[in-house]
Write a structure and sequence with these properties.
Layout: E1 2-12, H1 13-19, E2 34-44, E3 47-56, E4 59-68, E5 77-88, H2 89-92, E6 98-110, E7 118-130, E8 133-145, E9 148-157, E10 160-169, E11 177-187, E12 199-208
Antiparallel strand pairs: 1-2, 2-3, 3-4, 4-5, 5-6, 6-7, 7-8, 8-9, 9-10, 10-11, 11-12
Length: 209
């Protein structure tokens, strides 16, 4: 159990790797070269409260909330708010299709296993880079309970303007999806989706796994 008020903490990739257990860091995760943190951490792995701001050479984030039984995917409980600023997701996750991410996300619920999870989330994404395009003005919220999920999202970007609602279930061998999308416009060439310019307006209503 710890109760820490952190005025300022600084470290580096080399330092972190020196005390992490061997093979505990996933191979597809890159640690930032430098990081600093300030805030408060109280509790232990089974009941943790955090209000910490982290700044790194790959972006920054503030994480506020509670984590209970976080190592148990079925019994875990969480209530978190994450405020990310200019996180370099592509480098952190070693995915060249991803880039900078700035947004605010809240999530509250029980469990990480889709078969048993009960949770809600909401998010406002100011900017996220995908496939070398910088998407802006994305909002989303959703829930999962009793193997059923719902997601509502909207995006108002210069090259894609749409409202999307989706729902489905995890009960079968493959998750099911029912999606309704009202697309005011999507310009595929700037989004790097097609090699020729295509502009689409319309409604999409579909069911698939």
């Amino acid at each position: 159990y710890d109760d820490l008020n952190i005025n300022k903490f600084q470290s580096s990739k080399k330092d972190i790797l020196s005390f992490l257990p061997t093979n505990s860091l996933p191979s597809n995760i890159t640690l930032p070269e430098t990081l600093s943190a300030s805030g408060r951490i109280k509790g232990g792995m089974n009941n943790l409260y955090t209000d910490v701001a982290i700044n790194t050479s790959l972006g920054g984030a503030k994480i506020t909330g509670t984590l209970i039984n976080i190592t148990d995917k079925n019994k875990a409980r969480y209530d978190l708010a994450v405020n990310a600023r200019s996180l370099q997701l592509g480098m952190l996750m070693q995915n060249p299709k991803l880039g900078l991410f700035t947004g605010d996300i809240k999530i509250k619920g029980n469990g990480f296993n889709p078969q048993t999870a009960n949770a809600i989330f909401s998010g406002v994404i100011s900017t996220v880079t995908l496939n070398n395009y910088n998407y802006t003005n994305i909002k989303a919220n959703g829930s999962i309970a009793n193997k059923m999920y719902k997601i509502n999202a909207s995006i108002h970007d210069p090259n894609i303007d749409a409202v999307i609602a989706a729902n489905g279930e995890f009960a079968g061998k493959f998750p099911g999806v029912h999606i309704i999308a009202t697309i005011d416009s999507i310009k595929t060439l700037p989004l790097h989706l097609t090699p020729q310019p295509v502009t689409y307006h319309g409604q999409i209503d579909g069911d698939f796994t």
